[in-house]
Design a protein that fits this description.
By secondary structure, this protein is mostly helical. The protein has one domain. About 50% of the residues lie in helices and about 0% in strands. It contains three helices and no strands. The two termini are about 15 Å apart.
Amino acid sequence: MLHGSVTSLGEPWLEAVRDEAGRRSLGVLARDVSIELAAPIGDPVVMGASALLLTAELGLAVGR
C-alpha cells in the first residue's frame, strides 16, 4: 500500500509505480504483488516517527 501526499497524483502516478516495480522485480515474485493506494490514515511523518520511538527508544514492537 502506498500513502502520503504523493498519492494525490492519482492513477497515472500509480500506473508508473506499478510499471517500474514490475520491471525491477523478479517476474515469479512480482506477479503475486498488488500495489494499491492506502486510505488516508493521518500524517505519515508523524506515524513513522511514532513507530521509530516505539521500537528504538521503548523497545516495543509495532503491530500490523
